[in-house]
């Protein structure tokens, strides 16, 4: 067994059984090891940002890390934007980054770079494998780090000679029984003093917003948060962007704090208390002239209930006991039957088309930006579904994340809502979706512009944009041919210009397996 084979065997033994790969020359032995281990699924991505984004999507749905294979420092650099998004979403990930062999590095070949220096700002754990004998232990440590709560980014640098050299008889590999504890077992117990303090706040009857994030926006933790809200009259909310929310009919409803500063401050102005759960107090996404960075009203008090590494479900259990409300039932979102809309496409008709078309237990990955800000709030009464947002703000996350989510949940349809400008960053995802026959409906909102930047231009007070300035945020010369783009990558596609055609195209996309693309011409 060589070092690469030892590495792959250890990853599989630790529960990491998928690798999103974009290999190069230095990783050929690792590639051979991937192909030689039937327990490891390898997924080829045509750009490293697709690989890292797909690993993020996998974790958000599976709650266990995937691995990536990236080619040297430039390959890691190509993947860093979606590593940033994954880090902000608290997604676990194990990156394997190829490196020149030790003997070759002294000659400073062209692809030499400071891989550790590139990795450290966005990774929680970085290690260079020094020997084929120790690489199994390195891999086990990487998986253990990535599996912590909240999820962590682990990056293991793999020199070529470490891959091809044979493992010695005295290998420092971990015992086969070594298995990282499941994420729930790693979560810390919240402070009893904090629980009692928040219980006093809630008993005061003063207007309180409980802001949920990460594991608190789904599963039993969300249900128990709903029971706390029902017992106390507190309102449940989330930051505008969240890693994953379980929402729709039969779920505990959560209000999203608006993105725009003026709307967000208006939403928050009447709350006397904000209780945070696995998140911090609401802040503006950007700084604007003469607008606040902190969105709460003056005098509003912020009370942390659950820190990032603590157990939200346990915290709400403790809080229900402190409130004497252990038997309280939560308020649930009723089903709202939305008729299929007709007429022109606008945020309202788009929202109604979505609400009417989304099938039960689908996954919605949202990077629609301009369109989605106004639409998603109107889908609360749709069939139960999961909503995934971009936590880090680096665009080009949606199509890769949808790819990983579809691989994680092959029995669920994934709807990927993305603006045309964002989609161009990682459009190579379509090719992987076609190759793997993934159930992804990619919805391109084609306004032929970075429309969000036109709004931000005004928000920043930069004055009236000149024709030359506008040319830098319009993408209509030439106009992107989305149908041809999809066809070239093996994905069936259709263009729609009315609300009824949009609804029909979404429904049709669920009737056959595999990917498709809908261009919504705005």
Automatic annotation (TrEMBL):
Domain of life per record: Bacteria
Sequence similarity: Belongs to the TPP enzyme family.
Pfam families, per database record: TPP_enzyme_C, TPP_enzyme_N
GO molecular function, one term: thiamine pyrophosphate binding
All residue ranges annotated as the Thiamine pyrophosphate enzyme N-terminal TPP-binding domain in the record: 1-106
Name of the protein in its database record: Acetolactate synthase large subunit
SUPFAM superfamilies, A to Z: Thiamin diphosphate-binding fold (THDP-binding)
Domain Thiamine pyrophosphate enzyme TPP-binding: 384-520
Region (Disordered): 169-190
InterPro entries xref list: THDP-binding (IPR029061), Thiamin_PyroP_enz_TPP-bd_dom (IPR012001), TPP_enz (IPR045229), TPP_enzyme_TPP-bd (IPR011766)
PANTHER family: ACETOLACTATE SYNTHASE LARGE SUBUNIT ILVX-RELATED, THIAMINE PYROPHOSPHATE ENZYMES
GO biological process: small molecule metabolic process
Keyword Zinc included in the entry's annotation: no
Organism field: Trinickia dinghuensis
Keyword terms, alphabetized: Thiamine pyrophosphate
Family annotation (NCBIfam families): PRK07586.1
């Amino acid at each position: 067994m060589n070092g690469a084979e030892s590495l792959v065997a250890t990853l599989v033994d630790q529960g990491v059984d998928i690798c999103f790969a974009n290999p190069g020359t230095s990783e050929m032995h690792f590639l051979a090891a991937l192909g030689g281990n039937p327990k490891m699924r390898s997924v080829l991505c045509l750009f490293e940002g697709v690989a890292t984004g797909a690993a993020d999507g996998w974790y958000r749905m599976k709650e266990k890390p995937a691995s990536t294979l990236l080619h040297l420092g430039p390959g890691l650099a190509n993947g860093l934007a979606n590593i940033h998004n994954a880090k902000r979403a608290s997604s676990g990930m194990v990156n394997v980054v190829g490196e020149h062999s030790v003997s070759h590095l002294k000659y400073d070949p062209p692809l030499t770079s400071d891989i550790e220096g590139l990795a450290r700002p966005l990774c929680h754990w970085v290690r260079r494998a020094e020997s084929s004998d120790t690489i199994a232990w390195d891999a086990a440590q990487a998986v253990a780090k990535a599996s912590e709560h909240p999820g962590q980014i682990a990056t293991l640098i793999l020199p070529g000679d470490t891959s091809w050299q044979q493992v010695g008889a005295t290998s420092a590999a971990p015992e086969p029984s070594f298995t990282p504890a499941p994420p729930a077992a790693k979560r810390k117990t919240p402070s009893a003093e904090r629980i009692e303090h928040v219980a006093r706040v809630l008993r005061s009857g003063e207007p309180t917003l409980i802001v949920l994030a990460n594991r608190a926006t789904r599963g039993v933790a969300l249900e128990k948060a709903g029971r706390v809200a029902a017992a106390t009259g507190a309102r449940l909310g989330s930051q505008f962007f969240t890693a994953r929310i379980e929402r729709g009919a039969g779920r505990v409803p959560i209000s999203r704090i608006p993105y725009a500063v003026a709307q967000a401050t208006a939403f928050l102005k009447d709350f006397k208390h904000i209780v945070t759960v696995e998140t911090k107090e609401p802040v503006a996404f950007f700084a604007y002239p003469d607008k606040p960075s902190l969105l709460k009203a003056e005098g509003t008090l912020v009370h942390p209930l659950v820190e990032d590494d603590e157990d939200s479900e346990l915290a709400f259990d403790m809080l229900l006991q402190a409130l004497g409300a252990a038997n309280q039932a939560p308020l649930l979102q009723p089903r709202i039957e939305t008729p299929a809309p007709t007429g022109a496409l606008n945020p309202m008709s788009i929202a109604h088309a979505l609400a009417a078309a989304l099938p039960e237990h689908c996954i919605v990955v949202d990077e629609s930006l301009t369109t989605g800000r106004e639409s998603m709030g109107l889908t609360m009464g749709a069939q139960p579904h999961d909503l995934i947002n971009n936590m880090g703000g680096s665009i080009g996350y949606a199509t890769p994340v949808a790819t990983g989510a579809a691989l994680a949940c092959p029995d669920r349809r994934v709807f990927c809502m993305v603006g045309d400008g964002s989609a161009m960053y990682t459009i190579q995802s379509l090719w992987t979706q076609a190759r793997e026959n993934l159930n992804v409906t990619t919805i391109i909102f084609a306004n032929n512009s970075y429309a969000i930047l036109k709004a931000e231009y005004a928000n920043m007070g930069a004055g009236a944009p000149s024709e030359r300035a506008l040319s830098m945020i319009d993408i209509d010369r030439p106009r992107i041919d989305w149908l041809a783009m999809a066809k070239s990558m093996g994905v069936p596609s259709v263009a729609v210009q009315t609300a009824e055609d949009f609804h029909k195209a979404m429904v049709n996309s669920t009737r056959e397996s595999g990917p498709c693309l809908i261009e919504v011409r705005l």
